[in-house]
Amino acid sequence: MNGDSGERVVTRRNALQMGAGLGVTSLAGCLGFFTNDQNVEIPPLSEFRGSGTLVEGRPAPGGTSIEDLPDLSGDLALYIGGGEGGIYYEFVEMLQEIYPDFTVHPNDNDSASLAQTIVEEVEAGAAQADVFWSIDASSLGFVADNDAYDPLSDTAVDSVANDQFVGDDNAWAGVAGRARSVPYNTEELNESDIPSTVQEFPSTDALQGSMGWAPTYGAFKSFVTAMRLIEGEDATRNWLSDMKEAGTERHGNEYAVSQAVANGSLAAGFANHYYAMRVKNQQSDAPIDLAFTEGDAGALINVAGTLKVKGTQRGELVDDFVRHLLSSEAQEYFATISFAYPMIDGVEPVGGLPTIDELNPPDIDLAKLSNLEPTLNLMDEAGVSG
Amino acid sequence: MTIREQVSRTVDRGTDGDDSAVDVGLTLLAAAIAAVLVLPLTWLVVDAAGLGVRAFELAVAPKSIDVLVRSVALVAVVTGASVLLGVPLAVLTVQGEIPFPRFWTVLAALPLAVPSYLGAFAFVSAFGPQGELADLLAPLGIESIPSVYGFAGAAFVLTLYTYPYVFLTTRAALLSFDGSLVEAARTLNTGRWEAFRRITFPQILPGITAGALLVALYALSDFGTPNIMRVEVFTQFIYARHVFARDYAALLSLQLLTVSAIILAIESRLGVDESGAYESSSHRGSIGLELGAWRYPALLLPIVVSLLAIVLPIAIFGMWLTTGGPGYQVGRLTFSWEYGVNSAYVAVLAAAVSVLVALPIAIASVTADSRLAALANRVPYVGYATPGVVLALALLSFTLDVFPAIYKTVPLLVFAYVVRFMPQAIGSIRTSTLQVDRQLVEAAHTLGRSRLNTFRTVTLPLILPGVAAGAALVFLTTMKELPATLMLRPLGFETLVTFIWRVEETGLYGQAAVPALVLICISGLSMAVIVAQEGR
Questions:
Q1: Residue A54 binned pLDDT confidence (cut-offs 50, 70, 90)
Q2: Which tens digits make up the pLDDT trace of A119-147?
Q3: Nearest by CB to B507, which of A86, A105, A337?
Q4: Domains of chain B (ranges plus CATH)?
Q5: Which of A182, B121, B185, B254 is an S-S bond match for B190, by CB 3.0 to 4.6 Å?
Q6: Partner-chain contact B330 A82, CB within 8 Å
Q7: Which Gene3D superfamilies does this one have (chain B) (predicted)?
C-alpha cells in the first residue's frame, strides 16, 4: 500500500492536480490522507461478469483475487487506447468505486497516437501520463523502442502466463489477448475443410468465391504485417492478389464479416476471434465456428497491454494497478465482456475456445507490427487498399 | 531604418500631446501585449518550414487539395443557405406585420444559443444509425434510414446554428433604413418585388454581407460539427494529424489561415458602399410587406427551424436525463460535478486575465490617438479570427520545442483562451470608454488628482459596466470552447466540454445530458449579455 502518498515531490504530474485544486477529489484525497483508511468493499464476482448464453455456468476463476492485492490509493494519470476504451474504462470505473481514495485521470485517443505523444512528451521532459494502456502490442513496442518506459516490477508481470505477452525488460505486460481466426459457417464447411496455413487458402476449392475480409481494419493490417515479416514481401503480395482473384469479398469491418458467415452469405472469412463470439452470444444457434491456422500469420495473437511511462513518480501505484488488471476478477471481466483471451492461468476463454496454450501462434516480436508503411504499400500494389 | 526607429517615430507622430510620456508607456504596453498574443502563431511557420521543399509538394498533393475544396465548398454552401434562411426571416419579422413580432424575433435568433457541436451531437443521436428515430421506426419495419453523416449533414447542422448571424445583421439593417423611400417608390407605381429589389435590397446588402462574413468564418473554423459528422475539412484533418505529423498539420493550419484571410479580403472588396445604408430616420422600418393571409403560413418557417434547432436537442438531452439514454456498447463514463467546477475555474481565470490585458489596450486605443495604439487595438483580433484548433496546435508545438515547463498546463490553457476571446473584452471596454466624458477626467486633473487616482475614482467607475460585460462574455465563451480545451488541457483536467466529447467518442451518450443542458444554458446567458449590452 502506498502509505507515503502525502509526501511525494511535486512534479508536473502532481502539478496538474493543482489545476483541479478546486475539485472534489482533492478534498476527498485530503480526508483520505487524514483517516488513511479506505472503506474497501469488493463486489461479488457476478458484477464482473457479462451476460448471455456463452457466459452462463462458468466456473469460478482462478488466479489472484483483488482481495489479496494491495489497496489502490492516490491519483493515476492514464493514457488509454480508445478502440475498446468504453469496455476497458468501465473496469477502471469499477476500481474507482472499490477504492474511494483512488482516482484515475484518463485521456483517450487511438493507441498509435498516444504512443507517439508519450515519446514526444518524454523527450521534451513534459510527460503527462503515469501509465499507458494500449489496445495493441505494436504501440507498446513503439514506446519501448524509443526508451520512453520504466520497467514494470517482476511482481506485476509474474502472473502473465506466457512470456510472449511480456515485453523485453518488463517494458509492458499484456492484459487481454485476441487471436486472428477463420470464422466458418458450419452448414457450409467442416473444420477439416479449412487448411492449416493461410498460404493454402487461395488454392483450396471449397473456399473459392466464398471468403470475406475487411482490409481497412487495423487487425487485418497487423495480420498482413506479420505475414510480411514471416514470409517476405513477394509472397505476401502474391497471397493478397491470389486471394483477391479467388473472389474474396470486401467488408467494412470484421464484425460484418462474422455476421455474413453466420447468415450463410459467406462460407468463411478472416476476423479477430471475438466477433464470432459476439454473434454467438446474441444468437446461440448461429451456425458459426472458429478455425485456427498453425504457426503462421493467420494464427497471430495480439494483446492489449500496459506500460509504465518513463519518469513517473507513481511507479509503485502503476505496478499495483497492473496487478489489478491481471487479477482473476479483471481477467474474468475481459473474458466475458469483450470475449478477450485471458492472460493468466486459471481463467478460461469463453465459449469453448481453445486455450491460448492450444493455439499455435507464429514466433514473432509483436512490437515489430508497428511498422505499417511497407504493409500499406504492399496492399496497394496488390490492389487491396487498406 | 530599423524596426525600433520606425516604431518610435510612429509613436512620436501619434503622441504630440502634453502627457506623451504616460501615453507612450501605455501604448507600448498595449503593443507588447498584442505582440505576445500573436507570437505563438509564428511557430506554425517554423514547424511547416521544417518540411522544406516537401512543404510545397504536400500543399498541392491531391489529399490537401481535396480538403481545401471540401472546406471551401462547406463554407460556400453554409453561407448561401444561411442567407436564404436568414434574410426571409428578417424581412418577415420586421416587415411581415405578424402577430407578436418580438416573440418570433427571439425565436429566430435563439439557435445561436446552442453550440453547434451540441446540435450535431443531438442530430447524430436522433437520426444516426441506432439513433432515437431509428428506434422509433424499427417496429414499423423500417430498418435503415439515410445516413446523417457526411457533407450534407454537416452543412445542414451548421446552417441551422449559424443563420442567426445573417438574420440579426439583416434585421438591424432593415430596422435602420428609411422606409419612406419604399413608400415613395410604391407611390410611383413600382411593383412590390421591384421596390424590394431596387430600394430595400441595396440598402440592407451591407447587413447581409456582414452576417455572411460571420457565418463563413464560423463554418471554416468550426471543429466539433465536422468531426461529429465525419467530414474531412481543415479543422478535422489538422486534429487527426497533429500528433504524428505535426509539420504537416502546421502546413494545413497555414492554409486554413490563408483561406480565412481570403474570406476577409473578399468581404472588404465587396465593400458595398455603406454611406447611404444605415441612414436612420423616423420611419424605423415601418413599411409593411402586406403578406395578407400568407402571414400565417409564413410563420411555419421560424416554427420548423426552432423545432429542429432548439427543441430537438433539448428534448434529446432531456430524455437522456430521465431515461439514462442509450448505451451503444458495453462501458460506462460517470459524470462528476468536478468537471463543471474545472470549467468555471479556467473560465474565471480567463475572464480576469482578459480584462487586465484588455484594459490598457482599449483605453490606449481611445485616448492615445496614435497609430500604434490603433494597431495594438486591432492586432488581438487576429487571435479572435484564428480557429481554435490552429491556435492549440501552435501552442502545443511551441511549448514542446521551446517551453516544456508549461506544456499542457492550466496557465497555457488560460493563455489560449485569452488570445481567442480577449477581443470581446476589448470591444466592450472600448465602447464604454468612448462614452466617458473627457471633460470629467480633465476636471479631475485640474483639481490636482494624479493620473492613477483619476483612473481609479473617475474613469473606472464609469466604465465598470463595460468591464463587467467583457468579463462575462469571456467567461461564458470559455465555458463552451471545445478544440483548444481538448488539445491543451492537462491530463486529468476534465471539463464539461471535454467530458461531452469523450461521451460522444465512446458512444455512451446518456451521461452527456447534464453537461449538455448546462452548456446550452450558459450559451443562452452569453447571448443575453450581448443583447443587454446592445440595448444600452
A1: confident
A2: 999 999 999 999 999 988 888 998 999 99
A3: A86
A4: 28-43+337-493 (1.10.3720.10)
A5: B185
A6: no
A7: MetI-like
